Amino acid sequence: MYANKSTINPYKTFPESTSSHSPQIHEVIAVIFPFLNCTPAEEHPFKLNDIVKTGKQYGIVTSLNKTEKPVTITWDANNGEDSFSWTYNLDEIRALKISIVPQFIPQNTAGELLACTTIVLANSEQIQLGSATPFKVESLNEHHILVSTLDRFYLFPINLFPGYPTSCTVGIPAPQQLKAACNLSVFELRIRAKTYLDIEVPDNFLQLALPTQKQQFKEEFARQLSAHKREIESVEWEMGNLSNSYSPLFNLSDFDMAWEEAWKHRIESLVKKQGCSGFREGTRILQNRGLIEQMGTVQCLNVGEQRPFQIQWDSGEIQSYSLIEFKGLGIVRIEDIVKLSPNVAYQISEDGSYFRAWIGFRTKALAKAWLIPVKKLVGHLSNLIDCQISEFQHTGAKYEYAVQIPRHKTLNKRLEGLKKVAELELEKMPK
């Protein structure tokens, strides 16, 4: 038995019900047939195959999942363009005004109850409909739906309603509704701008970017929003309701604010994903110029500023530089560690002035046995380093030698020696 938290009042729905000819309302408390699937509650209102719309564009919910963007919508082909699918998070859905096309609209929707539909009324009476029974939706709220058949009225809990729509008359929205739907808030503009930039700005943008491109993207985004406004205006024009005092699509200061936030968000995401000019946050760098030799880490990349590279030197000092200053001061990037084999790894700077190499072994016995053969190929080695903690490993082995004084002066020769070591069977005792 269900407790009715918000029951439709039939006397409001049918004012004439106060007379002697009041229609009798049959309250339904259970549906025996057809069987209804109970689905767990979600954070969003969508179900698979829901019809949705935004503006004049219609689509169908084709996938639901529990990711950051849980809703996938396949949009209908429109104006010569093919249909396409896109995933959305809940903020984007709200900002883009994506809504479910309601299945049941009071006084507008007609439908059918399946043949053999079997229901239980509040007075415990059980009714079975012998054939498909047409109905009309009279009233609807969050908890109940009131429908009328040819001879009766049924009040169903909305979650138990077994009917399906067959037809619906849709009214044209009033001019006031169109005008209200046209105005965009800062939040809506920001989400639309982020979505636009995610689609239009390529992942390699930071390598190709020109100073004028930010403004070009901004102007194109504004044109797209204006095109949306013209679509809405065209509907009013057809209705003969276009006013000379028609409200603008957005406030210019709101637009500028939303654009700057969206642009900053897109650039920051590209910086984390791609880096800038070969540098990423966390990249190690080396300055080796004259008597100055120091190492540091890229702490922050502020793309768009005059000095975008913020460096924290190992001494603790923090300074910002431009790419030109990097070159003038002899500041170079230290590349990621390269593994030639499971036992051999090296790391160099982009100009080759910095060189480090490591040879790893599974046991101390293997390391001691290979000391002289390896030394002949690469140069003087450090004492054996215990690398039981993975943070200190370069090769992945428990024990490592570091190349302290390379045998050769040129980088190419040094790498040739390391490649020869990589070809040795260092997991076995030397013959």
Please characterize this protein's 3D structure.
The protein is of the alpha+beta class and 431 residues long. It has 10 helices and 24 strands. Strands 9-8-1-12-11-10-7-13 form an 8-stranded mixed sheet, with no helix packed on it. Strands 19, 20, 21, 22, 23 and 24 form a 6-stranded antiparallel sheet that branches. Strand 3 (57-64) and strand 4 form a beta hairpin. The longest helix has 27 residues, at 213-239. The protein is elongated and about 100 Å long. 19% of the residues are buried. The model is unreliable at 1-7, 10-21 and 239-247 (pLDDT under 50).
Give the count of helical stretches.
10
Assembly status: single chain
End-to-end C-alpha gap: 85 Å
Q: How large a portion of the residues is in β-strands, by DSSP E?
A: 25-35%
CA-based shape = elongated
* Structural class assignment: alpha+beta
- Report strand order across the widest sheet: 9-8-1-12-11-10-7-13
Count of β-strands = 24
Question: What share of the residues lie within helices?
Answer: 25-40%
Largest sheet, if any?
A: 8 strands, mixed
The poorly predicted ranges are 1-7, 10-21, 239-247
Radius of gyration from CA coordinates: 35 Å
Q: Quick check: average pLDDT?
A: 82
